[in-house]
Amino acid sequence: MSQIIATPPRNSPALARSLTMTFSDNTLLPMLLGDHDRHLARIEQKLGVRLACRGNRIGISGTAEQVVAAEAALEALYEQLKRGEMIDGPKVDAALRLTDPANEPRLPLSDLPAIRTRKGAIGPRSQGQAVYIDTLARHEMVFGLGPAGTGKTYLAVAQAVAMLISGRVDRIVLSRPAVEAGERLGFLPGDMKEKVDPYLRPLYDALNDLLPGDQLTKRMATGEIEIAPLAFMRGRTLAHAFVILDEAQNTTAVQMKMFLTRMGEGTRMVITGDLSQIDLPPNTRSGLADALDTLEGVQGIGVTRFTNADVVRHPLVARIVEAYDQRYNAAKEHARERQG
Fold first, then answer.
1. Distance from C-alpha of 21 to C-alpha of 28, rounded to nearest angstrom
2. What DSSP line would sit under 321-340, residue for residue?
3. Alpha carbons 95 and 93: distance in angstroms, whole number
4. What's the confidence (pLDDT) of residue 292?
5. Of 99, 248, 290, 300, which sees the most CB atoms within 10 A?
6. If you write DSSP's letter for every residue of 23-73 in order, what string do you get?
7. With contact defined as beta carbons under 8 Å apart, do 171 and 150 qualify?
8. HSE-CB for 326 with a 13 A CA cutoff
9. pLDDT bracket for residue 245 (50, 70, 90)
10. For residue range 119-140, what is the model confidence (pLDDT) as tens digits?
């Protein structure tokens, strides 16, 4: 697909490099470039390279690392187009995150893990997601930790759906603690189900995206898929199930131990949460933090920690998370200095 020109461009630093990629299918090239070459502009901005398209060729100029990353991103996007997938801004960003020279270690894009569903393969959009998908496949119990927008809940639900459809588990159980984040359940209208359903809505949203509506309704009616508040887990033993506890930072240590000990034969468990978003009463220790201190390193348990670099929502979300983290860390440092 590509021909490497080893000599550096004229009047450029010694470390500069140029490369020309040739694409065989002219019908796919406009989609690779994007309207008004917006995909190329996105790659130039993110990686600091210069791209020039002439006919069915794209020339890349930059440092050796930048050129290699741009080539890998363009090849990955072109392969997606050859498989019949569409390319948009978020997919370009995903390819760039996965080929960023700053991310080490970096897996070859051809070796990245994926979750196979009837809607197609769900691949990682960041290095953290690649590690997480691999961990979900290898471990019976997985903790997924990190800020909002990293895909930790969505990918866990995707793995659960894939295992249910393939017959590797008999059912899916999805749960969340119904913690009052600045609001009071008692003042909400309706019965208990209507009160807690808003807390479980993100789980419904993920399922709706992964399963046809009629199939989801049928599987929920038969009990193959169950969504329930954490309090409903007490006293149960869950066998041959894929069980997900979302927003686990809002459990107490007692609740977390209760949940983890529901695990029965043939069951997989995933616990997701963000320790910077704890809504528990003051001086109440998070069950998620307590579980990590107790269980990390135990055989059979995998832990994946996402960072702000793994946020795959709107780019502004990553900047918002980063701004809050900086403010939080500055406040902690200030408090430490006052104590000292």
1. 14
2. HHHHHHHHHHHHHHHHHHH-
3. 5
4. 96
5. 248
6. -S-TTTHHHHH-GGGHHHHHHHHHH--EEEEETTEEEEEEEHHHHHHHHHH
7. no
8. 6
9. very high
10. 667 778 888 888 899 899 999 9
Six-digit token pair at 142?
Answer: 């997985």
Tokens of 178: 């119904």
Lateral strand order in the sheet of 268-273: 225-229, 171-176, 241-245, 268-273, 141-145, 301-305
Q: What is the pTM of this model?
A: 0.70
How many residues appear in the chain? 340
Q: Which of 103, 224, 100, 96 is nearest to 160 (CA)?
A: 224
Q: Is the dihedral of CA 277, 294, 144, 127 positive or negative?
A: positive
pLDDT at residue 160 in the model: 93
Q: Which amino acid makes up residue 8?
A: P
* Residue at token pair 């933090």: 289
Secondary element (H or E) of residue 21: strand 16-22
Residue 255 · residue 287 · CB < 8 Å: yes
Angstrom distance (rounded) from CA 11 to CA 3: 22
